[in-house]
Amino acid sequence: MTPLRTSEVRQLLHNKFVVVMGDSIQRAVYKDLVLLLQKDCLLSSRQLETKGELSFERDVLLEGGREGRVHNDIYYREVRQFCTGHHLVRFYFLTRAYSAYLEEVLSKLRRGKHAPDLVILNSCLWDLSRHGHHFHSRYREDLECLFRRMDRVLPESCLLVWNTALPVADVVSGGFLPPRGLASSGRLPEDVIEANFYSCVEAARRGFDLLDLHFHFRHAAQHRLRDGAHWDERAHRRLSQLLLAHVADAWGVNLPGAAAGTEDPAPRRRAERSRQRQARRGRRRGQPREPAGSWRLRSPPRPLPQSPASFPLHQEGAPLPSDSPPQQHPNFSDSSRSQVENSREANAGAGREPEPGPIRRVYTQEQRRASTPYPAQRSAGSQERHHHQRHSSRQNQHTHNQDPSSQTST
C-alpha cells in the first residue's frame, strides 16, 4: 500500500464531513487525520498525550475539555472540530457505545446544516472497564442499540466504518480504568478480543463496514506506549493509512500504485451489499422508519493527484502546503461510482469476509511476480546425472585429443 500524502488526502476527503467518535485512541485518530490534511509530518508525543486543549493544529474545542473540568469520569465530554473551505472533521468523545449522550449527539447531527459523509466509530475499553459487569450481555445489547440507531438515523449516503479495538498489554494503566484498578487489567486483553468479535458480528449484520485494527496491529507491540493501551505516532500514521485505504476502496477510488488493467472489486461488493440490505429491509417491512431529517448531499470528489511512493517527514513548524487544487492524474478514476450519492448498500463490502484483514483488493493480491535472479535449484538425482554427463564429456574429449586418427587432416 502506497502511503498517501497531504494533497491526496485532501482530494479524497474533498467536500466531505467526517465524524470520529470514541475514546482517547479515536481522538488520536482524529488528530492524525487533521494533521495529515495540513502537512506531511507525524504527531508529537505531547500532542498524543494532551487532551481537551483549546486548539490543536488550527482546530477548535467546541465543548468540554479545558472549557470545563478535565477528569477521568464517565461523564467527561470533549467535542472538537476542524473546518476549512472544503473539509469538515469533528470528534466526539464517548465513554460508552450506546447512551443518552450518544442520542444527543445523533440529534445534533440530524439538526445540523451538513450531513455526515463518513463516520469512524469505536467504543470498547471504557465499556469493559467502567460498564463491564456482565459485559457479555450488556456490551452486546449496547452494540445492537448503537448499530440499529445508526442504521435509522444516518443518511443513506453516509459510510460508517467500525474500527475494532487495538490490542492491549497484560498490564495497563489509563484514565479509562476505575481508580482502584490502575495497576492491572486482569483479563482485559481476552475481553477485548471477545468484544471485538461481538462488534464484528453486529456490524456485519447491519451491513456496516469493518476495519480490523486488532488484526493489523497484533504484532506491533513495539509501537505501544508504556501504559499498555495507547500507541505512538508511527502506529497512528499507519492506522490513518489503513483507514483512508479502506474508505477509498469503499468509495471506488483507485489509490496510487494500483495495478492497471485489474478487476475492480467495488461493483461486485456493492451489488452484494445492496442485496443484503434489501433482504433485511424486507424482513422488517411494515415497521415505521424514523424521518430522515434535512440532509444535504454534496458534490462528487475530484480525481486524486499523482504522488511519489513515500512522503518526507517535515518538522513541526514547517509551512503548510498550498491550498490550490491539485492537478488531475490519469491513473485515478472519477467515474460515477465515486460520487457521494452512493448509498451504504452501494458502498463496497470490504471488511466483512470471515478471514482476518478487512482490506482486500484484486490488484494487490494478483500482481504478477517478477522472475527471480537466482537459478533454480536441482534435486539430488538431477545433480548426480548432471555430474555424470560432465565427467563423460571430459573423458571423451581427452581420448579424442590423444588419438591421431581421430583428427581431421587439412
Task: Provide tags for this entry.
7 strands; about 400 residues; disordered C terminus; about 10% strand; 12 helices; Rossmann fold; globular; alpha/beta
Q: In the CATH classification, which architecture applies?
A: 3-Layer(aba) Sandwich
Number of domains: 1
Shape: globular
CATH superfamily annotation: SGNH hydrolase
What is the class in the CATH system?
Alpha Beta
Distance between the termini: 69 Å
Q: Could you tell me the mean pLDDT?
A: 74
Counting helices, strands and paired strands, the structural category is: alpha/beta
For the biggest β-sheet, the strand order reads 2-3-4-1-5-6-7
Question: Biggest β-sheet, characterized?
Answer: 7 strands, mixed
Proportion in helices: 25-40%
Task: Please mark out the parts with pLDDT under 50 across 5 or more consecutive residues, or reply none.
Answer: 259-263, 287-380, 403-410
What is the tally of helical segments?
12
**Could you tell me the number of beta strands?**
7
